[in-house]
Amino acid sequence: MSSKSDAERARRQRIAAGLEEPVREANALARKLGLDPFPVNYWIVDFDEMNELIAYGGFQHRYPHWRWGMQYDRQQKQGQFLGGKAFEIVNNDNPSHAFLQESNEMADQKAVITHVEAHADFFKNNEWFNLFSENPDAAAMLERHAETIREYMNDPDIDREDVEAWIDHVLCLEDNIDQHQPFTTAEEWTADPPDRADVEERLGKLKLSEEVRREVFDDEWFEAQTAEDGTITFPADPEKDVLAFLRAHGMQYDEEAEKAVEFEEWQRDVLEILRKEAYYFAPQKMTKVMNEGWAAYWESLMMTDERFAGDDEFLSYADHMARVLGSPGLNPYKLGMELWEYIENYTNRREVIERLLRVDGVTWRNFHETVDLDEVLDGLEPDPAIAGVTPETLDRLDPADPRVDAEALAAAKAGEIDVAAYPWKVLTYEGLCERHYSLVRRQHRGFLKRVSKNELERTARYLFEVDRYETVAEAVADVDRSRGWDRMREIRESHNDITFLDEFLTQEFVDENDYFTYEYTHTTRDYRVTSVDYEDVKKKLMLRFTNFGKPTVTVLDANYENRNELLLAHHYNGVMLDIRQAQQTLERVFELWGRPVNLKTIVKEVDDHDIEVARRRDREPTPEERGKLVRFDGERFEVEDLPWEEVEDIAATDVDYDTKPEEWLA
Q1: Cβ atoms 563, 608 nearer than 8 A
Q2: What's the short name of a Pfam family annotated to this entry (predicted)?
């Protein structure tokens, strides 16, 4: 066993040694391209270890729970029977940790390394990740959590099955946090019921007249809002962090005493641990499309355009990328990468037309008749000396040129840099922007020509009468080729998937990339394409990502009908809950509240007669929306209809996707 372990260790060391140069150069290239990643520690692991890490969410230590075994088994079977291959896993930490599977070919390892460097840049610079912590030490945190829960499970005074069941209850609600707010510990988070003095103070700030306060907010009103224990119904506003609320105000039901009693200390501790982990992982769920698309974009540029994949590795890499981008279903790698490319092209096009509209004699009305866009694209082609850097062409580079790294050029001429393998080393960021300018790539050359008159008019409307050009060539020479990448980094800093899709998924993007919506139709009893309109596509996609694609549920009242019952609200966005699943969730919530729990929601109902009539008329039936209240008292369920006025507050006429913090809207 020892000799096998030593042999295995030696083999991994050899693999690691062979990857030292790709790791070093990938990081250097990423920084040249304008990225600023966390430092990354790379680890070599085998197939089983990779599957275990994926099951654990990218970390080596997690708390004991059956979910990890289930995820491990699923991952292993996917590789064995479905042909799935785990190329990499990287976690959000400083330093980040990335794991490379030892059986991967060198082309795969290089692809993973370039992909990881872009992820590490995203982790470091996206503001949503900083809501949890600006300097995460996630591996240490999760290891501490695992040890704490393990100690509770091994405590002779605590039943291990009770701990496991408690974890199950909490995990059922792990996405019911307020992911748009900075993480606060349980001690910092407060939602205590206000007393009468608090309400009086709030009313004073409203500057109501004495007559209104006397007539409306009288003693009778306070009594109606006050429970038997003297507290006023709370929370004052719907509370999205359901886990925090339950930790602060929840109880457990004692079957022997037949009443709710305070949590045990271990229960509060475990609940807070799982809540903290939910906040840690939330940014990764909120930015899946952006983050994976970002990594795929820069990986592709480095591996292909900068030939990080060697000639003997290129076909293997092409197969790797095809598998990543070709996976079925809603593919965040493909959608994200296409959106980033669209943003780059759109920004570069905007820069070009802004210059061209300043040319004497060119207006938005005569633009297409006056400007030869093929000639413009030819003028935007990179300087051959920049585009085709080789050891033989170094003398064509001017050390004083801002596109050239003078120090690296001198080193290259002295034979200290392998320019054949790493031509980018002798260029600056400005040089690389020109070298990889998107609008002149073969696959994107039609993008500039597709500019519409509407876009030309909008652009012209906000142009100032400055920096006029006498000729088109003069305007083209003044184009800033770095605008696309600069804009991409700005977006990477502040957006999440919802705001990303909302702002940048346009009709042009939908048409160019063949996106559409489909629905189940009652008349044909199958799925049909229903729209190629970008608003419909956008809405459909954003429903998949709002609140991680899970129903949005808040705490409405912790003293519902003056009975200390919990009232939750499902904020209906046109997609109704599965009532059976909702009931199963309420069973879990009851274990965290200790008293009856209620859920207010809206359902769609269509009867068979309406379906048959609609089918004869070749159209879809119009469902009727009804309010429902589901109640669970610990033993049985009750479902009752609610009048519409009692669910109006949770019936959205449209989904509110404006989740960007206010300070970023300036």
Answers
A1: no
A2: SpoVR
CA dist list (Å): 197 to 194, 203, 557: 8, 10, 20
Q: How far apart are CA 461 and CA 471, in angstroms?
A: 21
- Is the pLDDT at 205 greater than 60? The verdict is no
Core vs surface per residue 502-527: b (16+ CB within 10 A) or e:
bebbeebbbebeebebeeebbbeeee
Angle, vertex CA 385, rays to CA 374 and CA 300, nearest 5: 75
Instruction: State the CB neighbour count (10 A cutoff) for residue 645.
Output: 8
CA distance 360 to 472: 9
Instruction: Report d(CA 460, CA 462) in Å as an integer.
Output: 5
Percentage helix, strand, coil for the chain under 3-state DSSP, each rounded to 5:
55, 10, 35
d(CA 39, CA 27): 9
Q: Parse the chain into domains and list their residue ranges.
A: 2-126+309-325, 161-284, 333-513, 546-663
Q: Contact, 357 vs 478, CB < 8 A?
A: no
Q: At 642, is the secondary structure helix, strand, or coil?
A: strand
Cβ neighbourhood burial of 186 (10 Å; 0-12, 13-18, 19+): middle
Taking Cα atoms as reference points, which of 638, 496, 561, 423 lies closest to residue 131?
496
Residue-wise pLDDT for 592-603, tens only, equals: 999 999 999 999
Which residue, 66, 69, 100, 67, is CA-closest to 85? 100
Tokens of 175: 């996405």
Tell me, what DSSP letter sits at residue 617? T
CA gap 554, 177 in Å, rounded: 9
Q: How far apart are CA 406 and CA 426, in angstroms?
A: 7
Residue 203, pLDDT > 70, answer no
* Residue 327, C-beta contacts closer than 8 angstroms, at least 6 positions apart: 333, 334
Lowest pLDDT segment from 330-339, 569-578, 619-628, 656-665: 656-665
- Residue that the structure tokens 């009652």 belong to: 522
pLDDT value of residue 547? 78
C-alpha to C-alpha distance for 590 and 599, rounded to whole angstroms? 11
The β-bridge partners of 469 are: 359
Residue 158, φ and ψ in degrees, nearest 5: -125, 130
Q: Which residue has the tokens 């596109």?
A: 403
> pLDDT tens digits for 599-639?
999 998 877 766 777 677 667 677 788 999 999 999 999 99
Q: Do 450 and 442 form a contact (C-beta atoms < 8 A)? A: no
Encoded tokens for 515 = 């996106």
- State whether residue 57 is helix, strand or coil: coil
Count H helices and E strands in the chain, helices first.
29, 12
For residue 287, give Cα distances in angstroms to 290, 421, 495.
5, 34, 8
The token pair at 265 is 């200390």
Residue 651 · residue 628 · CB < 8 Å: no
